[in-house]
Structure formats: C-alpha cells, structure tokens
C-alpha cells in the first residue's frame, strides 16, 4: 500500500514538473513573437505595400472603397492607382509641405515604425507630474549637440503643438512686463506672414503688430518695448539673419525652423534667449504637429509654460512617442544619413533651378553664397527650402499672375510684405511636384528666346 502511495506521489510530482516545463517552454517560445500587435502590424504593412504607381500613398486612416484603401495621389495625378497624369493641371509650388524626405522614411520603414498599445499614456501627465517626455527631451538636446546648431546648456525646454503655437506663446510671455503700452511686435521684410496674422488674431492688450523692424531702428534705444521675430534661415529667401533692433527694451524670438544641415550651412550654434524649432522641417513630419522652444530665462519659461498649459494642456503623448522614434532614427550615425540625404536632395533641386534661370533676363532668384558648415566640416553650397523669385520686367509687376498664366501656383510676395514683383516657390514638396514645377519653369524661360528671335 505504501509503495502505491509513493508511486502516485512520484507520478504527480513528475507530472507537475513536466507541466511547468511545458508552460515555461511555451512562454519562452512566445517571447519575441508578436501577440496582440500582430494584427495591427499586418494591417499597417498591407496598406503600406500599396504602390499607387509611385505617385501617391494609401493610409490606414484614409478612405476605403469596397473594403480596400483608396490611393491619395500626388498633384496632377489621378485614377484608382494614381497612374493617370493630367498635363493641363497647375504646378503647385505654394505650400511648405516637406514631402522631399518621404523616400528616406520609406527606406527606413522598419526603424521608424511605431506600434501604440491601446492603453499607452492615458493620463494627462507623466509620472513626474509634467507633460513632457524626459527621454524625448534628452534626444532633442542630443540632436542639437550632434548638428551643432543650438546651445542647449542652461536652457529650459518646452514642447508645443508645432512651432506655430510656440510663436504666440513666446509673444505672450515676452509682453508681460507691466508696461502701460502694448509691446510692438515687428519683423524684417520679407517675413513669414503668420507672425502678423497670429498677433492680430489674438488682439491682446499686451502686444500689437507694428510692421517692419527697420522702420523702428532709430527708436529701439528708447523706452519703447519691442518684440522682434528673427527667422534664420529666413522664410522666404533662405538668408541667415540677425536682429535689426538692439537695446534694453528689445526682446527677440529666434525662429530656427530651417536651421538644419539640409537647408543651410551651420556656421555656429544659435545662442538666443528664446529659440524655436519644429519637427516638420527636420524629419518632414509636418502632420504630427510637434515643436519645441529653448528658453534661457526662467520667468519667460514659466509664462510660456502656463500659456501652453491653459491652451492645450501639453502635446499629445502619441505625438511625443512618434517624435522620439523618429529622432532616434535621425540620430543614427550622428545624423549623417538623414542630413546627407536631405542636403543632396535640396542641393540638387537648387542647382537645377539655378541652371533654369541662369540665362534669363526676365526672372531671377536669390543669391546665397557657399559657406563653411560646422556639421559637415566643409564649405557647402546653398540648399534653401524656397526660391525667392523676382519678375525683373516692369510690365510683370504682378509676378504671381505671370506665373499663374504659365501654369504655376506660387505664394505671392505681397503676403511677405514684399513688392508684388516677388513670389515664393516651394522646393520641399514631393519629387513629382518639383519635376513638374521645373518643367513649367523651363517652358516659361524658353519663351524669352523665342520672343527675341
């Protein structure tokens, strides 16, 4: 009888050990395999694999027809698979949509992909009580250190819903000085139209837009309060700029959206008191709406932080997660791959555009001298985001109309407070957009020779 009980005990013990080994083996086998994210990954890859003839994209959040994603076509392309080209459409060079970097991210599909759990960051705040990912902040500081484009030591950092939100937050913070009159907000012509549009839209008693900074140069040493926007490189002409106004009552907002190696040489780290950057012009992800500010003064930081908190209660946690993933990819090899790709693309486009206008007497584009870049450690040629085109003939005083008649949509120079002899042409859209724009410009310039003959 004792032998039977002993046998049963050994049998139960052996069975228990075998069961535990089986369960452990199952866990180990599943480790590294997709479980809950598998269907999401399959769905994402299925949509991404739709080629749209190379002239468009299908998206998970796009329209579906008969259960299948619908291709969203590039400008001038149509049809179910974007294979139908419309030669009669207008070449759209208006917007600053940075799709020139799309091929880079397609080549880095695996590295840049993000799978977000349904329970990811559901709280309003992080564990430390803030609305900012410390890991993302660390990567941003590292990005500036690698590119050598900005001083981050001794600076506070704030995140915004794109740089647009941060611009008005900075104006608000810098105008809070108990002055009996509103701060005069100015910028140097030609300037980014949003500066004036936002300042006027919010109609604050603390600040008022007052036009061209040069008009106030002789009064900046007085007790009048000024807030000057300095865009470097400038939008629309790509020039590196310095403040026009100086004095104890002048505060400066440095908009460095384009101060990255693919758009300009980096001669030295930017070192302003308030510096604003945006992810859209470094990685191309304009739709993610993410920007950040580097701020020297704690009081300004506190006022900007309060403004952002009351306005949106911080930036989406999903956006911060995606930004972190993208910056990790951008930082690989100290950024050489993305910045070399971006620079070569923009440099190639600028060279082609320059060749088009080299023999023209009717049109001209801005001159940007080659200069030494501390990031590439060599002299680099210009690679601006935009062409600042001038119609040279007196009869072509409405340059926007001249280009539109030639089948080109530009951005009117009047919007930048410049003369109507000027227009801005975007060079940062898709390759399809640029190729079609160049084709139309070549045709327009070739008319000069035909008329002379």
Task: Please explain how this structure is put together.
The structure is a single chain. The chain is globular, with a radius of gyration of 27 Å. The strands form seven sheets. It has a seven-stranded mixed beta sheet, covered by helices on one side. It is of the alpha/beta class and 453 residues long. The chain has three domains: 38-89, EGF-like, alliinase (Laminin); 134-334, Aspartate Aminotransferase, domain 2 (3-Layer(aba) Sandwich), CATH 3.40.640; 336-452, Alpha-Beta Complex (Aspartate Aminotransferase, domain 1), CATH 3.90.1150.10. α7 (194-202) links the parallel β9 and β10 (207-212). α6 (162-174) crosses α8. The chain has twelve helices and 21 strands. One of its GO terms (biological process) is amino acid metabolic process. Its cofactor is pyridoxal 5'-phosphate. Residues 35-89 form the Alliinase EGF-like domain.
Short description:
The chain is an alpha/beta fold and 453 residues long.
CATH architectural category of the largest domain? 3-Layer(aba) Sandwich
How many domains? The number is 3
The top level CATH class name of the largest domain: Alpha Beta
CATH-level-4 superfamily name of the largest domain: Type I PLP-dependent aspartate aminotransferase-like (Major domain)
CATH topology of the largest domain: Aspartate Aminotransferase, domain 2
Secondary structure: number of strands: 21
- Uncertain segments are 7-25
Helical percent range?
A: 25-40%
Distance between the termini: 120 Å
